[in-house]
Amino acid sequence: MLFRSKLTALAALLAFGFPPLAVTAQEAGGAPAPAVFVEMTEKTTLNRSVSYTGKLKAFARIDIISRVSGFLEVQDFQPGQAVKKNDRLYKIEQDNYEASVRQAKGALAAAVAVRQGANIDKVRTETLVQKGDTAQAILDSAVAQLGQADGDVDQLKGVLEQAEIELGYTQVSAPFDGIIGLSSVDVGAFVSPETGVLVTLTQLDPIYVEMQISSARLMEYTSGSTQIGKNTDHKIVLSLTLPDGSVYDKTGYIDYVATAVTDGTDTVTVRGVFENPEHRLFDGAFVKVSLQEIQAIQALTVPLQAIQRDMVGAYVLAVSQDGTVSRVDVKTGAQHAGRITITSGLEEGVSIITEGLNKVQIGMKVDAALKGEDET
């Protein structure tokens, strides 16, 4: 009876020229349009940041060996001590090497005297030849003797230089500022080049940190105006979180990016540099490295949950003005704080579904509301 009365009322309205009223989905017996939340796409200002596990690596590390043989007379350091470049670390007995220097100096002095005599003979013989008082062969012999004397002097200069170098090697010095390790030999021991490592010197200030970054992510950071690996224009700042959870109080920069992908990983080795004057950062320690762009960029981002994926690729579901759902294929970039950058496929001002995706299908109509609107 109720349905028949509604038809009678509708016929009366048509007879008087009134347009028919819309019949709701519920009255027509169909399901109501599913309710979804949407977000209007827009570009926002981003300082992109991403974190990786990195490993600290000494700026320099060398094994110090003896370059000459002799008994070790002095050790001038304590293990773990900070040393400066050219600080003496060891002294090896010098007696034999000082004697070699004196011997070389004496031999050189004698050779210089012989050369002076040969030069005098040459000059005298030249005069005699000019006067016709001696044969040319005598002059030729004098010239040859002077040449021999010159050669002897040069040779003995080399012998003296070598002796002085070896004497200098008895003073074993630090080649750079660093932290000295444990000595492997004791004072009084006989050392030689065959002894091997005497001690290890490590430079920790500055210090490197190495990390592996996916090639795809690296391309994002090296595209456009955001370049890394250039000492003259650091557009990405690095920060460290230490193993105890504290944040290191100094920032760093990237100084090196490998030119090839690591086999089997599709990652690229990236190296950063940090100042470490207090030696708080230790060689070999694992840390969390955060990369953040100094220069903010304008980018279109959407919530991570808005992205759907299938065999074709990534896409979002958009809602038109009449409430119809459609698919929009997109390409995605970096993630940050629960959102993902859209690099292509989506423009500003599009309503995309962020909640209720499991209730909709492409082509159907939905009851869309912006997230945060009053639903009462």
TrEMBL record:
Domain Multidrug resistance protein MdtA-like barrel-sandwich hybrid: 62-193
Single Gene Ontology MF annotation: transmembrane transporter activity
GO cellular component term, pick one: plasma membrane
Domain Multidrug resistance protein MdtA-like beta-barrel: 206-293
Gene Ontology biological process terms in this record: response to antibiotic
Keywords: Signal
Source species, domain of life: Bacteria
SUPFAM superfamilies reported in the protein's UniProt record: HlyD-like secretion proteins
Leader sequence residues: 1-25
InterPro entries: MdtA-like_b-barrel (IPR058626), MdtA-like_BSH (IPR058625), MdtA-like_HH (IPR058624), RND_pump_MFP (IPR006143), YknX-like_C (IPR058637)
Domain YknX-like C-terminal permuted SH3-like: 299-367
Residue ranges of every copy of the Multidrug resistance protein MdtA-like alpha-helical hairpin domain listed in the record: 102-170
Family as reported in the entry's similarity comment: Belongs to the membrane fusion protein (MFP) (TC 8.A.1) family.
PANTHER family attached to this UniProt entry: ACRA/E-RELATED COMPONENT OF DRUG EFFLUX TRANSPORTER, MULTIDRUG EFFLUX PUMP SUBUNIT ACRA-RELATED
Protein name in the entry: Efflux RND transporter periplasmic adaptor subunit
